[in-house]
Amino acid sequence: MNNLMEEGNNSFVPTYSQFPIVLDKGEGRYVKDIEGKSYLDMVAGIAVNSLGYNDSEFNEALKSVIDYGLLHCSNLYYNQHAVKAASLLCALSGMDRVFFCNSGTEANEAALKLSRKFGKKFSPIKETIITMESSFHGRTYGSMSATGQVKYQKSFTPLVPKIIHSPLNDFDALKAKVDETTCAIFVEVIQGEGGITCADASFLQQVRTLCDEKEILLVFDEVQCGMGRTGKAFAWQHTSVVPDVMTLAKALGNGVPIGAMVVKGEASNVFAPGDHAATFGGNLLSTRAALVVLNRIKEGSLLEHVSLVGSYFKEQLHLLKEQYPVIKEVRGMGLMIGIELHEEVKPLISECMEEGMLIVSAGTHVLRFVPPLTITKKEVDEGLSILKGVFKRRFG
Ligand SMILES: Cc1ncc(COP(=O)(O)O)c(C=O)c1O
Asked: Ligand 1, atom 8: nearest CA belongs to which residue?
């Protein structure tokens, strides 16, 4: 433990249990610690750094905002980057309007408030929100209450009322919970923190039909699975289902904090001036960052790359599964892949780190791979070779 880590341990509120490295630099798909050790990055700041590190176009774009001298001007005024980023988000999604904020939890707070106001248009009791078990929507009160995992909530009760949970991919269970009080259903198209679990296209279709029948908003949390991670701009675009509301953050800014709530149809006419706000939301720096990412997605070759490299990566992990019965399942899409083990993954993560690769868990038993979307096949092979070495030592 060096002095800097000790200083951190003495000065941070201890909300994180941190690995004993201090990261300092990035290049391509590699990060370096302050001692100069290089790591292949399969974490990307938890599905954030989608363009990889030291991308020249991204760097120049941010520098140009700084050179113009205006990083922030408040939403009392327009700024060109926010307008263009919103237009591009609408074009990529086929949705109608965008609210910018600073994080995933904030995007979900906006969606929760919008859902309740939408319900009130029909009836004062239409205020119940249904989300999925094992979901993760954030850490602030609304989105923590929306999260379908008790471990994030148990010390912080009472929660926001009238948010209930139903199992993912079980339409009958969901239908049984829907009544005249339901105003919105939230689904992560691929559950991230919950263990890389995909929503079935048929489930999403059934939920869409139910929402249409009962005047219920369908909200997709694409904070982790969106922005190109699955090989489409948004994970729901692999299906024929379009949500009323979508929430984004993480990779939208490639490391510059930004979140967004994107709305379509009736949902775009719910909020009026004064209903919701975020001081920093949509400022020039974060929306300029988002513009680079959105343009890269629009251009198309990045998405193709994600599909190709992601399929290859998954295939290789399936082969590893055949070799190691400790692997229970390989799941995911594009470059959002999880392998569930029959045992806890924590020690494997530390061993991979020692061998020069960063990986993160999703729950206790799932190893999660969410590298920069620009990762090459050769780098995937390098990661697999580190992983195989660790598996061989542990499991023979
Ligand atoms: C699906 C999903 N929603 C919301 C959040 C919360 O995002 P943030 O940490 O930016 O508040 C996360 C974070 O992991 C997430 O994965």
From this structure: 104
Q: Are residues 92 and 206 in the same domain?
A: yes
Residue carrying structure tokens 């979140």: 259
Distance from the CA of 337 to the center of ligand 1, in angstroms? 17
Domain boundary among 261, 276, 299: 299
Query: pLDDT for 115-166, tens place per residue?
Result: 999 999 999 999 999 999 999 999 999 999 999 999 999 999 999 999 999 9
Burial of 46 (0-12, 13-18, 19+ CB in 10 A): middle
Last residue of a domain, one of 258, 280, 299: 299
Pocket test of ligand 1: the residue of 190, 197, 250, 368 to mutate, having most ligand atoms within 8 Å of its CB, is 250
Nearest Cα residue to atom 9 of ligand 1: 104
Number of H helices, E strands in the chain: 12, 17
Residue 320 is predicted with a pLDDT of: 98
Q: Compute the distance from residue 22 Cα to the ligand 1 centre, in Å.
A: 23
How does pLDDT run across 253-305, given as a tens digit for each residue? Answer: 999 999 999 999 999 999 999 999 999 999 999 999 999 999 999 998 999 99
Contact 189, 198 (CB under 8 A): yes
What's the gap in Å between 137 CA and the centre of ligand 1?
5
Distance CA 168, CA 309 (A): 28
| CA 115 – CA 183 distance, rounded (Å) | 6
Residues with CB under 6 A from ligand 1: 103-105, 108, 136-138, 188, 192-193, 221, 223-224, 249
* Burial class of residue 20, CB neighbours in 10 A (0-12, 13-18, 19+): exposed
